[in-house]
Amino acid sequence: MKRFYRYIFSMFLMAFALVLIWNTHTAYAANQEEDTIVNGVFIDTVDISGMTVREAQAALKKHIEGLRSKSFALIIGDNTRVITMGELGFTYEANNHIKYAIGLGKSGNLIKRYKDNKDIEHGKKVYPLTYSYDEEKLRQIIEECAERYKVSPKNASFSRKDGEFHFTDHVLGSRMEVEPTYAIIKDKLDDWNRLDFVVHATMVDVEPQFTKESLKKSTSILGEYTTEYKSSSADRAANLANGARLINNALIYPGEEFSSYTYLLPFSMDNGYYVAGSYNAGRIEQSIGGGACQVTTTLYNAVLYSELEIVERSAHSMTVSYVDLAFDAAIAEGSKNFRFRNNTDMPILIEAFSNDRKITFRIWGHETRDDNRTIKFENKVIQEIAPPSTEKITKDPSRPTSYRKVTQSAKRGYTAELYKVIYENGVEISRELVNKSSYKAEPAHVTVGTKKN
Questions:
Q1: By CB neighbour count within 10 A (0-12 exposed, 13-18 middle, 19+ buried), where does 143 fall?
Q2: Rounded Cα gap, residues 293 and 249, in angstroms
Q3: How far apart are the C-alpha atoms of 138 and 188, rounded to whole Å?
Q4: Residue-wise over 335-349: b if at least 16 C-beta within 10 A, else e?
Q5: Interatomic CA distance for residues 426 and 422, integer angstroms
Q6: I need a surface site. Which of 119, 122, 215, 447 has the fewest CB within 10 A?
Q7: Does any domain span residue 167?
């Protein structure tokens, strides 16, 4: 019987102990948020001693915000890009450090609590943080910087003056190497000491495509052509000289396009032009820049003999006197332009000059054509159109009725074709159509007086 009572009593004591433990745990959990952390406890470099859970959480948040505002400077040549940790998504991995810290010296059995307190007495307790950042974002920023701050090299250039070539040396460019720069920054971030830092990007020089030495290959005449303007007025002659001046020393690199508009426009007195005759709606009229078509026509023929790629060319509305049919190239602002592309492997230089009532275009470049190969251009008249017999009459009320003057002779119309003929060792091997041109027939223009006595 005594044994039974002892069993009942021991069960009672066990139940009492369990209730006591449960109540103690519940009370601890309820008061944990108001409890404070013992002295000497750190999370990373944040001293959370004496703080409540909420205070420790706020301190840790402030610490992370401070770290996210830290930055490093990426030096890219003469430029600097400042990158904050926040841009990289800098943060720390989830943990239970505060939960463990609040229980130091207070939870667990007597031995554990004693050991925790002794450990803190002999030195601070530090909970480390594991940080992370977006490596892809870092790479993206570096790639953007590489593209934004690259410095393109400058090709060497050359010109001609007084019959001699003058060369200007090339300028090196620079480029940031993405992978080595990324590796340097990543090494620093993976072992970051929480301080701002500076990284010098890995840079390499970029050579231009054409140096001064390589340009010395472009000193052969690929093609040249001359036309005369002996009967032109002084103003028209001045316009041709001005056109040659504006185009002279134009340098076109491989693949680039030459546009006459770029060099010759605007047709204005401020741009060196005078008033002279030009075609307009079947009539010769006085306009600023009259004669510019002879400039583009002469250049067109030099380009033909250089065998460069013609991009745009238009015939005149009526025939001209300074070249044969289909050899002309007109220019008219807004409607007709002469363009060609440098389809060679080296830069070409256009030399243009006028003297003794002649205008000449000479194209310099790298000659790669066979000496046994020659070219010739031949035109062929497909159709000839007689001018209308009915004259175009302009009445002048200031002149007497007896006055009559032919202001513009009748012009025949034509359709013509231009062919490029290639010879090897003097034997024709091909004949290629270059252009087909049409010229309007125009009756004589006559001015008559209408003033009565």
A1: middle
A2: 19
A3: 12
A4: ebbbbbbbebebbbb
A5: 9
A6: 122
A7: no
Residue numbers of the domain that contains 409: 370-453
295 shares its domain with 223: yes
Q: Give me the mean pLDDT over the 140-144 stretch.
A: 97
Q: What is the pLDDT of residues 10-40, one digit of tens each?
A: 665 565 545 444 444 444 444 555 789 988 8
Do the domain assignments include residue 424?
yes
Q: What is the Cα–Cα distance from 33 to 53, expressed in whole angstroms? A: 5
Cross-strand bridge partners of residue 418: 379, 435
Both 338 and 384 in one domain: the answer is: no
Q: Read off the tokens for 413.
A: 């119309």
Same domain, 359 and 326: yes
> What is the pTM for the complete model shown?
0.75
What per-residue confidence (pLDDT) applies to 280? 79
Residue 375 φ/ψ, nearest 5 degrees: -130, 155
Q: What are phi and psi of 186, to 5 degrees?
A: -60, -40
Same domain for 303 and 435, yes or no, is no
Distance CA 365, CA 252 (A): 10
| Shared domain check, 374 and 357 | no
User: Shortest CA distance to 95 belongs to which of 23, 34, 43, 164?
Assistant: 43
- 426: domain CATH number is 2.20.230
258 and 302, same domain (yes or no):
yes
Domain ends where: 332, 349, 367? 367
For the chain, what is the domain count? 3
262 and 400, same domain (yes or no)? no
- Bridge pairing between strands 257-259 and 309-312: unpaired
Q: What is the dihedral of CA 260, 261, 263, 269, to 10 degrees?
A: 120
What pLDDT score does 11 carry? 60
Half-sphere exposure of 375 (CA within 13 A, CB side): 19
Residue bearing tokens 């939870």: 107
Same structural domain for residues 248 and 351? yes
Each residue's pLDDT tens digit, 185-236: 999 999 999 899 999 999 999 999 999 999 999 999 999 999 999 999 999 9
Burial class (CB in 10 A: 0-12, 13-18, 19+), 437: buried
